[in-house]
């Protein structure tokens, strides 16, 4: 339809794509009119997976369309170059295309010519749908006449072959063909002429894609078959349905890979990670007259989550992800799709004086119907019994059979003191906020809970968690926090040796501060054996394995954590960290950008993205990413360090020195980790200073040193005797 140029729009000061229409198309006034109408609709689509359409213009008799410039490669070329894409990559791209279609369809826009040539893969690996509205715009006035085929033969739905109007289900047919093409390297129908290819969409069944790719599961094959149904009514009816299926397949794939990795590491061992059912427990709504029971509502839901995670065949979404929908008016089935679960438990709490009313309902995501619902009108003292009853009711409705000892674990009570329990819930409420002041508040509540009930193991475990995280989320020195974490965790285990949370907290302190690697690994393994549904154990064990250079095992652990807590910012950031440690910077950048879509200001994702840019020789992008957030008031010292290294790399030594002096000045007022200052000196190429500050970090037992061997930022120092000596002192030199 025309030629496309890369251009710079002086009006908006942005690089754009400029499509000059062929004269024969531009000469048709009806087509130009349609272009204008379609562009009005297409301009409404502002989605990360859709190329933005700007305007239709005319200059010196030539019509042109302006649109977003996407630097990358079209999917057709990408497939030709790769032959076949991996299952994971294919599902990722299909989900991105599906999300773009869902937004367009919501606004009433149908593509009508979806094909791999119309999908761009940008430099970060993200898919963008191109040319919305084009197919309909260039159609002739007799488009609706029977027999007039509009589209591309290899991707044309049967109704389009018949000359009928395409709708959103036609786009889903095209998506099915694209998924087939990514997985097999070929389209399902081929022929000698465009007409012969088009007719096969009406008359032939696609060849089984498993003939070309044995890695395609039965579930994935069935999903493609449903997309490619001849009858529109038999296909998926919306992009949201396709996305739900893709999310389920992605979760199954991750779980399968994890089971395979575990069998490979432990031949002959029974597979204990196979989840048969899945559930998310949403935060309970506060219906109390004073609206002052938020901590208690959250606590009830969290206690149910903790109990359910002990059932081996039930995948329970962790608190972080389940609570991310709090306060949002979201459809239950949409929540279920995003979390990749079959069922959701929601409820409410009404507390008045000592009277308590708790309602709970278990909802099936597939159809939105209630599987079970109950209301409990009791005294406050009965809250423990209510939680037990709800947990057992869920297992009954999901037809879960308890393994030996499971039932006693899930209804175990850690305190009978109601006051201590409420103080513990307040501690967890503030701990989950992950900020310096809230962690300090959480410590107060956990200590009060312990004072009320000195044998409350969970309260000691909560205290240990606070001290473990305090140096990460505040200016607290490791020596002022980690020993206290270790002491609290050991006290919890003295009271209850079977508490997975306490084993995890102890393992973290042993790794981060004591650098006692064998003991830390024993504790991590004990925690996971006791509770395989505890996402934090998998996440922190990932850090252990990554630090030790055992990256295949590390990947398995962080994927387990992500399956349990799919919307967790820190776990999604950690997956990017895994790619960074593996020197796979493109994937690290892509994963970090996806995390920042959840929260653009999440510091850990910003750090991993910037460090990956730096190792990819893209220092300018580090500067663009961090200039405002790191140099402004309250900039995190870690981001200041990476920005300083980027400035030094680009030859802006004065700016690097300015950040260096700023960090040293901060260190005179608050605790600043010497490791951060070493990063800037590394960028400046001043090795003597790098080692001086790394030695200071060692003396202060700075937890960043555990990643010294894994971090590619320090690859240039590996041949230095001083570096090998330092690794040995941290226990990283084999």
Structure description:
With 734 residues, the protein is of the alpha+beta class. The protein has 4 domains: 2-250, Transferase(Phosphotransferase) domain 1 (Transferase(Phosphotransferase), domain 1, Orthogonal Bundle); 275-413, TolB, N-terminal domain (Rossmann fold, 3-Layer(aba) Sandwich); 416-531, Alpha Horseshoe (Serine Threonine Protein Phosphatase 5, Tetratricopeptide repeat), CATH 1.25.40.10; 617-730. The chain has 32 helices and 13 strands. Strands 8, 9, 10, 11, 12 and 13 form a 6-stranded mixed β-sheet that branches. Strands 1-2-4-3 form a 4-stranded antiparallel β-sheet. A 3-stranded antiparallel β-sheet has the order 5-6-7. A hairpin with a 4-residue loop joins β6 (119-122) and β7. α7 packs antiparallel against α9 (218-227), α23 (551-564) packs antiparallel against α24 and α26 (603-615) packs parallel to α28. The chain starts with a strand and ends with a helix. Residues 137-148 and 257-273 have low confidence and may be disordered.
Give the structure's gist in a few sentences.
With 734 residues, the chain is α+β, with helices and mostly antiparallel strands.
The total strand number stands at 13
Average pLDDT, to the nearest integer? 84
Q: How many distinct domains?
A: 4
Main pleated sheet = 6 strands, mixed
Distance between the first and last residues' Cα = 63 Å
| Low-pLDDT stretches | 137-148, 257-273
| Contiguous helical run count | 32
The dominant shape is globular
User: By helix and strand content, what is the structural category?
Assistant: alpha+beta
Q: What percent of the residues sit in helical stretches (DSSP H or I)?
A: 40-55%
What value does the Rg take, in angstroms? 28 Å
CATH architecture of the largest domain: Orthogonal Bundle
CATH class call of the largest domain: Mainly Alpha
């Amino acid at each position: 339809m025309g030629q496309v140029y890369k251009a710079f729009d002086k009006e908006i000061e942005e690089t754009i794509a400029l499509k000059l229409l062929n004269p024969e198309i531009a000469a048709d006034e009806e087509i130009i009119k349609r272009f204008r109408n379609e562009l009005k609709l297409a301009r409404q689509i502002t989605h990360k997976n859709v190329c933005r359409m700007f305007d239709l213009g005319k200059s010196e008799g030539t019509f042109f369309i302006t649109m977003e410039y996407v630097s990358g490669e079209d999917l057709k070329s990408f497939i030709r170059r790769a032959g076949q894409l991996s299952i994971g990559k294919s599902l990722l791209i299909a989900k991105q295309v599906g999300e773009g279609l869902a937004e367009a369809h919501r606004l009433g826009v149908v593509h009508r010519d979806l094909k791999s040539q119309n999908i761009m893969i940008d430099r970060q690996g993200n898919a963008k749908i191109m040319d919305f509205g084009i197919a309909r715009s260039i159609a002739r006035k007799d488009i609706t006449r029977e027999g007039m085929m509009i589209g591309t033969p290899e991707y044309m739905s049967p109704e389009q072959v018949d000359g009928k109007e395409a709708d959103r289900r036609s786009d889903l047919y095209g998506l099915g063909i694209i998924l087939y093409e990514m997985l097999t390297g070929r389209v399902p129908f081929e022929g000698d002429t465009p007409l012969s290819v088009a007719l096969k969409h009406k008359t032939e069944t696609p060849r089984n894609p498993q003939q070309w790719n044995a890695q395609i599961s039965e579930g994935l094959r069935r999903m493609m078959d449903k997309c490619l149904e001849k009858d529109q009514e038999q296909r998926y009816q919306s992009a949201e349905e396709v996305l739900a299926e893709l999310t389920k397949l992605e979760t199954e794939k991750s779980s399968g890979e994890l089971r395979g990795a575990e069998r490979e590491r432990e031949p002959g061992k029974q597979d204990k990670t196979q989840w048969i059912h899945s559930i998310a427990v949403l935060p309970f709504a506060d219906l109390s007259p004073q609206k002052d029971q938020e901590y208690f509502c959250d606590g009830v839901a969290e206690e149910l989550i903790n109990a359910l995670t002990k059932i081996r065949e039930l995948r329970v979404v962790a608190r972080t992800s389940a609570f991310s929908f709090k306060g949002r008016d979201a459809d239950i089935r949409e929540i279920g799709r995003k979390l990749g679960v079959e069922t959701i438990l929601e409820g409410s709490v009404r507390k008045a004086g000592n009277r308590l009313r708790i309602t709970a309902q278990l909802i099936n995501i597939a159809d939105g119907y209630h599987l079970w619902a109950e209301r409990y009108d009791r005294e406050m003292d009965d809250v423990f019994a209510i939680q037990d009853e709800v947990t057992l009711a869920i297992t009954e409705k999901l037809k879960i059979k308890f393994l030996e000892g499971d039932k006693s674990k899930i209804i175990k009570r850690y305190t009978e003191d109601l006051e201590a329990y409420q103080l513990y819930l307040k501690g967890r409420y503030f701990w989950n906020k992950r900020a310096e002041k809230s962690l300090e508040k959480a410590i107060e509540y956990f200590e009060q809970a312990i004072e009320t009930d000195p044998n409350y193991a969970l309260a000691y475990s909560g205290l240990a968690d606070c001290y473990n995280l305090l140096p990460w989320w505040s200016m607290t020195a490791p020596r002022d926090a980690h020993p206290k974490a270790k002491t609290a965790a050991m006290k919890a285990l003295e009271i209850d040796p079977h508490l997975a949370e306490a084993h995890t907290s102890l393992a973290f302190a042993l790794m981060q501060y004591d650098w006692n690697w064998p003991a830390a690994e024993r504790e991590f393994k004990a925690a996971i054996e006791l509770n395989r549904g505890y996402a934090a154990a998998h996440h922190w064990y990932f850090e252990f394995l990554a630090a030790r250079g055992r990256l295949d095992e590390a990947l398995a652990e962080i994927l387990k954590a992500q399956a349990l807590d799919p919307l967790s910012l820190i776990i999604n950031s950690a997956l990017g960290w895994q790619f960074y440690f593996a020197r796979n910077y493109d994937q690290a950048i892509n994963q970090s950008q996806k995390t920042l879509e959840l929260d653009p200001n999440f510091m850990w994702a910003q750090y991993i993205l910037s460090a990956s840019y730096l190792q990819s020789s893209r220092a300018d992008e580090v500067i663009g990413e961090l200039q405002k957030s790191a140099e402004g008031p309250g900039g995190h010292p870690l981001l200041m360090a990476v920005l300083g290294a980027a400035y030094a790399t680009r030859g802006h030594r004065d700016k690097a020195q300015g950040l260096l002096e700023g960090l040293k000045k901060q260190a005179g007022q608050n605790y600043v980790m010497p490791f951060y200052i070493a990063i800037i000196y590394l960028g400046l190429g001043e090795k003597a200073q790098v080692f001086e500050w790394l030695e200071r970090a060692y003396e202060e037992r700075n937890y960043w040193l555990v990643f010294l061997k894994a971090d590619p930022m320090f690859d240039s120092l590996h041949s230095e005797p001083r570096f090998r000596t330092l690794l040995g002192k941290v226990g990283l030199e084999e």
